[in-house]
Amino acid sequence: MSASALILIDIQNDFCPEGALAVTDGDAIVPPINRLLDSPGRSGFGKVVATADWHPLGHISFASTHEGKKVNDRIEANGITQNLWPVHCVAGTPGADFHPVLDIDRADLILRKGTSLHLDSYSAFFENDGKTPTGLHGYLQTCGIDTVFLAGLALDWCVFFSALDALALGYKTTILQDLCRPVDQPAGFSDKRVGELRMKGVLVSTSESLI
Fold first, then answer.
1. Distance separating alpha carbons of residues 38 and 43, to the nearest angstrom
2. What does R_g of the chain's alpha carbons equal in angstroms?
3. Which of 104, 127, 200, 207 is the most exposed place for a label (fewest CB within 10 A)?
4. What structural domains does the chain harbor?
5. What is the spatial distance between Cα 94 and Cα 14, in angstroms, rounded to a whole number?
6. What are the residue numbers of the active site?
7. CA distance 87 to 91
8. DSSP H helical ranges for 56-205
């Protein structure tokens, strides 16, 4: 696994219980991620990358930014369909911080995304226009990485789109499903997303296979 990277997606306070956009049991993935980072398998990762939403106030993804709109509405903005969310992960606020138990010191790179006022970013690789890079691909290429393992929040959104982009960029891509949690709204949505990933060639495994 020396040419592989572990990518930890958006394990932030606002996506954990009591956060502004809480994912059910989102914090439950933190201890097993730490165990993986402490295991002999950690030495097999060439790099560990942690991503974080880092939104400005008035971000395009916030329902409150758009008069008359509510959470889970969808809008068209600059030719992109945008799902609307509660205000979350505002840059510099406690909600945007990584979960306090996550051993973030093990990360070789912290990558902040969704920093543009008028453009959201689900994927760790591209903004939602599908063409503006976050810089992650260039970093991994410089490091000689050809394989990525993904974990984090939420499985059916940011992990999903990160996996699709990783695969399209030519990485051998695996989701560690036990180290993810979904939004799963409506119920069953997450299973459909995982099925789509499998069909496209993304591998779905667990952290036990690496320890």
1. 9
2. 16
3. 200
4. 4-55+91-209 (3.40.50.850)
5. 8
6. 10, 113, 158
7. 11
8. 136-142, 160-168, 189-200
DSSP states along 20-59: TTPPTTGGGGHHHHHHHHHSGGGGGEEEEEEEEE-BPTT-
Inter-CA distances, 153 with 27, 52, 69, 98, Å: 10, 10, 25, 12
Q: pLDDT tens digits for the chain (211 residues)? A: 559 999 999 999 999 999 999 999 999 999 999 999 988 666 679 999 999 999 999 999 999 999 999 999 999 988 999 999 999 999 999 999 999 999 999 999 999 999 999 999 999 999 999 999 999 999 999 999 999 999 999 999 999 999 999 999 999 999 999 999 999 989 999 999 999 999 999 999 999 988 7
Q: Supply 122's token pair.
A: 């689900």
pTM to 2 decimals? 0.95
What tokens were used for 41?
């398998």
The CA-to-CA distance between both ends of the chain, in Å, stands at 12
